TrEMBL record:
InterPro entries listed in its UniProt record: Anti_sigma_zinc_sf, Znf_put
Name this protein carries in UniProt: Putative zinc-finger
Any one GO molecular function term: zinc ion binding
Signal peptide: none
UniProt keyword annotations, A-Z: Membrane, Metal-binding, Transcription, Transcription regulation, Transmembrane, Transmembrane helix, Zinc, Zinc-finger
Domain Putative zinc-finger stretches: 9-33
KW Zinc-finger (keyword) present: yes
Annotated TM spans: 76-96
Taxonomy, superkingdom: Bacteria
Amino acid sequence: MSCQHTVDVGAYLFGSLDLSERAAFERHLGGCDCCQAEMLRLAPLPGLLGRLTLEDVENLDEIPSRPPRPDRRRRVVLVCAAVLVTLALAGGIVFLQAPPPPTWAAENPGTGVNGEVSMVQKSWGTEMWFKLEEVKPGARCKVIVFDRQGQREVGGWWGSDHGPDERIPGSTSFRVDQIDRLEVSDESGLLVTLRP
């Protein structure tokens, strides 16, 4: 039995995955026996490699004439460490999953427009995904993003001729926690205001 994600175990253990890749791998790990077994097998590596000195690395090609005798106590410690890492990962998967992205929704009774936005924090600002209903066909829509300091940015432009379940992308340099409100409008004026 094998899994294509077992190659991600090493990258995960050494902290080489970015935040979204790490979250996806942790979700996968909870249900994959193959990746869990590989995790147990590789768990001691970061600690062992951390103990290497420059001299050890320079002398890797020198093979001793007699292999060292196995150290039973060391094996027990390594197995216990692997079990603890596995339990910690399992607990992290259950209890430390990232919260879902914030979603704001509103309806403007005057225009009849329903709006919803899901926001994802990024290193550069915020990624936004809109769903809008009851916008007149053929309109050019835009979103203005207002932060809590009164600054504003255009977060995106789009045409209203899209499917009812189609998500519309937008973005802003403001972090999610800095955003006060989003105003969606077309040529005729304000369609809907989205707030937390």
